[in-house]
Design a protein that fits this description.
Keywords: RNA-binding. This protein has two domains: 229 residues, Nucleotidyltransferase, domain 5 (2-Layer Sandwich); 69 residues, Ribosomal Protein S8, Chain: A, domain 1, CATH 3.30.1370.10. It is built from 13 helices and ten strands. A hairpin with a 6-residue loop joins strand 3 and strand 4. Helix 5 runs antiparallel to helix 10. The longest helix is centred in the C-terminal third of the chain and has 17 residues.
């Protein structure tokens, strides 16, 4: 696939899974092209037209201005093993993003992403896309830690920089990420400017080029039970912030518990997403001074609790986890609202 004539060629390295025992990050392999995509014809046909005969695994991420339901999606990054595509939503517009909709909603394309909640929210509210079949590396990391007997704190979600630094998966420093974060603090509209600068291209590519490699390293470690949790929690993460009026009836169903895991006395419990409305003026009471109240609730419940926060919706609490733990969290949260 040739790069657009309107942009100079960019290249980077995509580490490949290897049985040779060598270092996949030594950059000895030939670099792959980074394509800046402004028209759907620049994307691979197997991505645009997903099929069960060609199962794809791609690294995926989104960049934007205040990326959420009300923000602006600027770039979607898609990493293949032989190329990286920066899908330019600013220049390509709705037509280009909608051309990607079949792949983003397809069960035949695995989207490897680190914390998909806000990306999914932006895609859903700005383009009507229901992100599906993600492998969320943040969820996978927590499951591997649990499998290997390490307990984490309720709010201890691994950052992408932290994930890359873990020697089990990459073991590299990602200092450029902080450089971009500083620029974003100085100018929140960083990702909307065109043409894309060399730094923008490199930063966007760096956020996805390691993901296919991490995917393989993680999948090697996950057992069957963890793989089911990974698929269920990924589906819940995708719909978490995408509130609609039909209780997600138009979304793909949550993966059922496999028969092979239905062992008497040790079967996993169904996992659900619950959304609580918080009366006006009560959110501060729920969170408590310096977060003490909500942290106490999180410590008592084996469920994830998230807030809409500044990006919204500000009056909602999202709870994900096993049914009994979610119900316990709901009761405790309602109790705080009534205090």
């Amino acid at each position: 696939m040739a790069s657009s004539n309107h942009h100079p060629p960019h290249r980077t390295h995509v580490p490949l899974p290897s049985d040779s025992g060598g270092n996949p990050f030594d950059d000895e392999a030939p670099p792959v092209p980074i394509h800046i995509v402004t028209d759907a014809s620049q994307l691979p046909a197997e991505f645009l037209n997903p099929s069960p005969e060609r199962q794809l695994v791609v690294g995926f991420d989104c960049e934007g201005v205040d990326l959420c339901r009300n923000g602006t999606l600027c770039i979607m990054q898609i990493a293949f093993q032989d190329a990286i595509y920066l899908v330019d939503a600013v220049e390509g517009g709705e037509v280009l993003i909608n051309a990607c909709k079949p792949a983003l909603e397809s069960a035949h394309v695995t989207k490897v992403i680190h914390d998909c909640k806000r990306d999914s929210e932006a895609l859903y509210f700005q383009f009507g896309i229901k992100l599906h079949n993600v492998m969320d590396t943040q969820i996978a990391y927590a499951l591997i830690e649990e499998q290997e007997g390490r307990k984490r704190l309720p709010d201890d979600h691994i950052s992408f920089v932290g994930l890359l630094a873990d020697p089990r998966f990459c073991g590299i420093s990602y200092q450029e990420k902080e450089e971009v974060r500083l620029l974003l603090r100085q100018d929140p509209k960083f990702w909307i400017y065109r043409p894309l600068s060399e730094l923008m291209v490199r930063a966007a590519a760096d956020d996805v080029r390691f993901l296919p490699y991490i995917y393989h390293k993680m999948m090697e470690r996950l057992n069957e039970r963890s793989l089911w949790y990974l698929s269920v929690r990924g589906a819940l993460y995708c719909r978490c912030l995408c509130i609609n009026d039909n209780d997600y009836a138009d979304w793909p169903p949550i993966p059922p518990i496999p028969d092979s895991l239905m062992v008497e006395g040790n079967a996993p419990e169904e996992e659900i997403l619950s959304i609580l409305d918080v009366p006006q003026g009560k959110m501060g009471r729920v969170i408590g001074r310096k977060g003490v109240s909500i942290l106490a609730i999180k410590n008592c419940c084996n469920a994830e609790i998230h807030f809409g926060g500044d990006k919204g919706p500000p009056d909602k609490i999202f709870i994900m986890g096993p049914v009994r733990e979610v119900r316990k969290a709901e009761a405790m949260l309602r109790g705080r609202m009534m205090d």
